[in-house]
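Lecture 7 notes: from sequence to structure.

We start with a single chain of 272 residues. Read the sequence below before looking at the structure.
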Amino acid sequence: MSECVPFKESGALWCRAEDGAWGVCAELQREDAAGAEEVRNAALALADTKSSASAKSAAMKTLSRASTLSLRLFADQPIEIDGVEVENPIIKYLEMERRYNSAAAPKPSPPPVKSPTRSPPPSPSPSPSPPLILPTPAPASPPSRCAVRSNVRWESPQADGSYEYGMDVYAVLTSGASITSGWEIVFKFSSDDVTLYTNSAYGASVSIAYDPYGVRVFKLRDRGYDATMPLYSTRRVGFNTRARSRRALELSFVQINGERCDIVPSNDVARR
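Now the structure, written as tokens:
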């Protein structure tokens, strides 16, 4: 196949074969044969409002293992639930991946702007050079609202090969004004296989939620009497978890009251 073009809005590559017929490229054909049914079942589970949270979580794992080419092809296919065509959830999944990847990508620095200068007109007598015009600096991106670090206090091996961990999360308010009317920290682990025991928490109330794409997140919220957080102060929250390794406990996303937080790497969490 020597000629390939993107197909419709999904951008999946279609190629012209030797007989002149158009078809999806060979790489996509191999992936489609290996996992087409899994991807379609995952899309149906996410589109069905009657699917359980565990079914949606399993469907998201299936989509995360599928290739981008395969997902883009299936984004063009209609999805029907009980005979009614509904929006294909793979479209939202691809948009979510695009937003996460663009948010994680480093912002390029603007090229330096040279200050314009003018040469004096020719004259038998010297004339002064015009004043130097400095460029207006580009506006800086807003600083992160807080910095967050996690720490494992203890671990206990279990019979099934997993571990239970005692874990602390430290949040430092690093910019803006002090929080005076309540705070909520939303975070997610690098692995969706982590179990967090909400009844073991101290320093905050803990709950589990799912975003519009079925991704599980955890919420740490003040308990009313500790609703303030002065600027540069540290808030410590602890809880017990269960996972296959410490590496699964690495934090991949943190916000406080809807504003971005920096994640400080923890050697204690990443060493196993």
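Residues 26-47 form the longest helix (22 residues). Keep this in mind for problem set 3.
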